[in-house]
């Protein structure tokens, strides 16, 4: 199961109810963080995300609201005796800035910190056994990356099929490993007794103008988390500052055929997010504006 927790849903500046950008995705005991705004470690405590389980942190771009939380989070991990290495991904060219932020006071870290540059094109960043995380380019005032967390498709045994072939006991692990099995002189292929379960995909796009690259990455995904700094009443400002309106984010979701749209990176000017949610729902029914602490299980 994939568990998505919205740790911070504001943009640029925090408010009383919204912390700065960060989203966690948990899968089988591992945590992956997407952006790490100021206060992320406090939000993790509040919402029960263990810093020691974080395997990698993906930073969309080098604006302070997305990155300043790294300095504190990495220090707390060290003070809590972390030994396991961690990888931090940042658009290429900003690796030095990240290293400077991490080590400005010459803090001692008892674990290895890998800082890895992300090319400004679709790239695979992490390839796990059952899932992969890749990046795609966004359109912002400086190089910015979107991220796609994709589970791989897997095969599931179907009772009506395997009973027909009299598969039982250790046969299951054998056919899973080798892809075929011989029973009573008859060869059975894995596909004869299983069905494909499509992997789930979560797309994170912040900060950005609406883009074809996001729509393409989100094609048939389960969840698109898209920035929505403004409403359409501020669309000129959104264009000038290279952000998106709720309507623009909803257009991207509609174009991509994604199942679910959640808006985040909400400007502090909107005290009530309901009108923004409504604006998006007119284009993409079911769209939601995220609040800090919201959890989505997929
Ligand atoms: Zn931002
Ligand atoms: Zn930005």
Question: What does it look like?
Answer:
The structure is a single chain. The strands form four sheets. The protein has a seven-stranded mixed sheet with strand order 6-5-4-3-2-1-18. It has a seven-stranded mixed sheet with strand order 7-8-9-14-15-16-17. With 298 residues, the protein is of the alpha/beta class. Helix 10 packs parallel to helix 11. The chain folds into two domains: 252 residues, 4-Layer Sandwich (Metallo-beta-lactamase, Chain A), CATH 3.60.15.10; 41 residues, no CATH class. The protein is globular and about 70 Å long. The chain contains eleven helices and 18 strands. Strand 2 and strand 3 form a beta hairpin. The protein starts with a strand and ends with a strand. The structure holds zinc ion (ZN) (2 copies). The site of one zinc ion (ZN) has 7 residues, from helix 2.
Give the CATH H-level superfamily of the largest domain: Ribonuclease Z/Hydroxyacylglutathione hydrolase-like
The biggest sheet, with number of strands, parallel, antiparallel or mixed sense and barrel status, is: 7 strands, mixed
Alpha-beta classification: alpha/beta
Number of beta strands:
18
């Amino acid at each position: 199961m994939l568990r998505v927790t919205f740790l911070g849903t504001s943009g640029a500046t925090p408010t009383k109810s919204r912390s700065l950008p960060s989203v966690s995705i948990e899968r089988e005991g591992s945590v992956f963080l997407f952006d790490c705004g100021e206060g992320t470690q406090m939000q993790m405590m509040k919402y029960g995300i263990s810093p020691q389980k974080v395997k990698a942190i993906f930073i969309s771009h080098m604006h302070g609201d997305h990155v300043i939380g790294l300095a504190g989070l990495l220090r707390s991990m060290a003070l809590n005796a972390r030994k396991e290495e961690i990888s931090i991904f940042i658009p290429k060219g900003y690796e030095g800035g990240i290293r400077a932020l991490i080590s400005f006071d010459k803090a001692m870290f008892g674990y290895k910190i890998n800082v890895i540059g992300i090319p400004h094109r679709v790239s695979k960043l992490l390839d796990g056994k059952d899932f992969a995380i890749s990046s795609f380019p966004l359109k912002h005032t400086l190089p910015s990356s979107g991220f796609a967390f994709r589970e791989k498709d897997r095969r599931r045994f179907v009772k009506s099929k395997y009973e027909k072939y009299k598969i039982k006991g250790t046969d299951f692990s054998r056919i899973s490993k080798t892809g075929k099995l011989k029973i009573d002189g008859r060869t059975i292929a894995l596909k004869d007794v299983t069905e494909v379960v499509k992997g789930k995909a979560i797309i994170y796009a912040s900060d950005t103008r609406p883009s074809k690259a996001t729509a393409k990455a989100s094609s048939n995904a389960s969840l698109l988390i898209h920035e929505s700094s403004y409403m359409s009443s501020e669309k000129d400002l959104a264009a000038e500052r290279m952000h998106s309106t709720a309507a623009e984010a909803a257009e991207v979701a509609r174009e991509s055929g994604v199942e679910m749209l959640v808006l985040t990176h909400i400007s502090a000017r909107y005290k009530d997010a309901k009108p923004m949610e409504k604006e998006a729902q007119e284009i993409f029914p079911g769209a939601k504006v995220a609040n800090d602490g919201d959890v989505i299980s997929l």
